[in-house]
Design brief:
The structure holds two protein chains of two kinds. In chain A, about 50% of the residues lie in helices and about 10% in strands. Chain A is mostly helical. Classes of the chains: A mainly alpha, B alpha/beta.
Chain lengths: ~400, ~220
């Protein structure tokens, strides 16, 4: 495979091939060490079943690992415990009804699920939401990101043995959920985005409250930078564990913070062409060259802080005007095909909608981030030690609803 | 903390310069056409939006390889299939009964970049350098629903192909591990085919559109 480093955008301090080799060499070396040991101690293979109900699985992912001593020879995720068939169900629902369903894909950042679907439908209808609606959309999109990632920040720590961060994460996430609830009426499933705009305007006093909540989230990030990232145990358990070389990650379809932690400077908020207002804001995309579990955590922490700044800017620049474009009450989407993808908390999420000019979509293909993100695990878990399975699964960060759809 | 300092990586503005996106899309199609020759069937560009390319079934892996190596599409986005059969159960939300008219009235109509068969493969690839995506399609003849696997080109195709096999019953040649991914092993049928009934809708009546309560002061339409 062509090394991605040559392409210009993709940067990798160590060189993709080299990191790739490092993992292979480590595996060979440990195999050799084991072989020497086995002269005296016979080991035999063992199958370890993790899940479906394990805290590291965020739902019901099951992992079957074949072990040789402490090492994984082969690991295979088994999904489907929560398959709900949204692609089939969407074929018998009208476009406004579909958003109710897809709220439940990534249930930690629900509003973000609705956005790419609505954008794809708007593309087909050639409707554009008025500026205020786009800004409100983007604010809620970023709030969903914060609500989603704060939980990850606590959750990965708890899986590495630190109990406190997860309580702090749940505590501070509440501030964001309260703000989402104040606008949409729903803490988990807002169902707020509409074709042509958003359902309602912001309530009175909301902007001030949200700014205060962002302050609290920034404090939370600072605290976690010391508490978790600065923690020696956390570092030694996550540094150099589960290295994803950029070229391999891209071929597996890794997106979002997972691929940015491998040094790939790609963010659909900046690079995508969807109708959100990120191009009018001043912000940066965070990357980390290491590609290990630590880097994935680090990137997500920076992104959460960056998101709070984005929300502040969005609230300051909120334009006035209508929140809904002129769309018919009964929505029929003209025949055609469209794909829209956005940078969701978990990575690239997109909807490929095929319409035949009806009330209902003819086919909806849901491209969810976790499905691709987790498809790298059979490759990534080869040769790692048992405790590192948990680190790697936690750092890849998936939501089961986003895998099983 | 110094060891945790930001690892800023300069973003290059190369993608912004150069010809406008639609010209680049046409250039991509031309490049693929030159590479695949006979295997390149049709292409469709929606200005300012997207590019569709249809290739022959035998050129499926060649097209993906060319997209990866020549067009620079390193990112494997997704792979799936489309069943173009009009649903025999009617298409409206409140259809609970067979709707034979729907079957007779609707000829099979394929979407962008055309097609002639009921089943089509579709794969989406993305180039990070160009910040542009491409959707490649291929027709599958009704008597032989099989196509070469893309695993050799993109390792990530593995699970997507398992899903397409399970949901549409398409066989992937050279796939090492064609097993159920979501459904239990003994499951029969291919749920995303249009002639597979959605049983939940068939056994329980759906309130449907008649139930919608109008807002105060709103006229029914």
């Amino acid at each position: 495979m062509t090394p991605v480093g040559e392409a210009g955008r993709v940067t990798d301090r160590k060189g993709g091939q080299q990191v790739d080799q490092r993992q292979q060499l480590a595996y060979v070396a440990t195999q050799a060490a084991d072989a020497r040991l086995n002269v005296e101690i016979e080991t035999e293979g063992m199958t370890l079943n993790i899940g479906p109900q394990h805290p590291a699985t965020h739902g019901t992912l099951r992992l079957v690992a074949r072990l040789d001593g402490e090492q994984v020879v082969e690991a295979e995720p088994i999904m489907g415990y929560m398959h709900r068939g949204y692609e089939k169900l969407a074929e018998v629902r009208t476009y406004p009804q579909v958003t109710t369903l897809i709220n439940r894909i990534d249930w930690l950042g629900s509003f973000a699920n609705e956005v790419p679907f609505i954008l794809a439908a708007e593309k087909l209808m050639e409707v554009e939401a008025p500026p205020r609606a786009q800004w409100i959309r983007t604010v809620l999109f970023e709030l969903s990101r914060i609500a989603n990632i704060t939980l990850f920040l606590g959750d990965m720590a708890v899986q590495l043995g630190a109990l406190t961060p997860v309580f702090m994460a749940f505590r501070d996430r509440e501030f964001v959920l309260n703000q989402i609830e104040a606008v949409t009426g729903g803490r988990f499933h807002p169902n707020f985005d509409r074709i042509g705009g958003v359902k309602d305007d912001l309530p009175k006093g909301w902007i001030e409250d949200t700014k205060q909540a962002m302050e609290k989230i920034r404090d939370f990030c600072d605290e976690f930078e010391d508490l978790v990232l600065g923690n020696e145990i956390f570092q030694s358990r996550s540094r150099g564990i589960g290295i994803v070389p950029p070229a391999v990650g891209l071929a597996y379809g890794l997106s979002g913070a997972n691929i940015r932690a491998s040094g790939v400077d790609w963010d659909l908020r900046r690079d995508g062409h969807e109708a959100l207002v990120y191009d009018q804001l001043d912000w940066k995309v965070w990357t980390h060259p290491d590609g290990d579990s630590f880097a994935r955590y680090w990137v997500r922490l920076q992104e959460t802080r960056e998101a709070t700044h984005l929300v502040d800017q969005l609230l300051d620049g909120l334009p006035s005007g209508p929140i809904m474009a002129k769309v018919p009450r009964i929505i029929k989407v003209p025949a055609g095909e469209a794909y829209a993808a956005t940078e969701n908390p978990l990575g690239e999420m997109g909807y490929y909608i095929i319409s035949k000019g009806d009330l209902v979509p003819f086919r909806v293909k849901i491209r969810s981030a976790s499905f691709s993100n987790i498809s790298i695990t059979p490759w990534l878990l080869k040769g790692v030690y048992v405790p590192d399975i948990i680190t790697i699964l936690a750092s890849l960060y998936f939501i089961l609803g986003d895998i099983d759809r | 903390m110094t060891q945790l300092s930001s690892t800023e990586i300069e973003t290059d503005a190369a993608a912004e310069s150069g010809p406008p996106p639609d010209e680049r899309r046409e250039a991509w199609a031309a490049q693929l056409a030159a590479e695949l020759g006979e295997g390149f069937v049709e292409h469709h560009v929606i200005p300012g939006s997207d590019l569709w390319v249809r290739v022959a079934r035998d050129s499926w892996t060649d097209a993906a390889t060319a997209a990866r190596d020549q067009l620079g599409c390193q990112f494997f986005d997704w792979l799936s299939s489309i069943d173009w059969l009009p649903s025999p159960y009617g298409r409206d939300m409140d259809a609970q009964e067979d709707n034979p008219q729907a079957k007779a009235a609707d000829p099979m109509e394929q979407g962008h970049a055309g097609g002639h068969t009921r089943f089509q493969m579709v794969v989406r690839l993305y180039s990070l350098t160009e910040q542009m995506g491409i959707t490649i399609k291929a027709d599958l003849p009704a008597d032989d629903l099989s196509i070469d696997s893309l695993i050799e080109v993109y390792a990530g195709a593995n699970w997507h192909e398992r899903e397409a096999w399970e949901m549409f019953g398409i066989h992937f040649n050279n796939h090492p591990d064609l097993r159920h991914i979501y459904l239990p092993g003994e499951f029969e049928g291919n749920p995303l085919r249009k002639d597979f009934p959605l049983l939940a809708r068939r056994v329980k009546p759906w309130p449907g559109i008649v139930d919608v309560e109008l807002f105060p002061g709103e006229e029914g339409s």
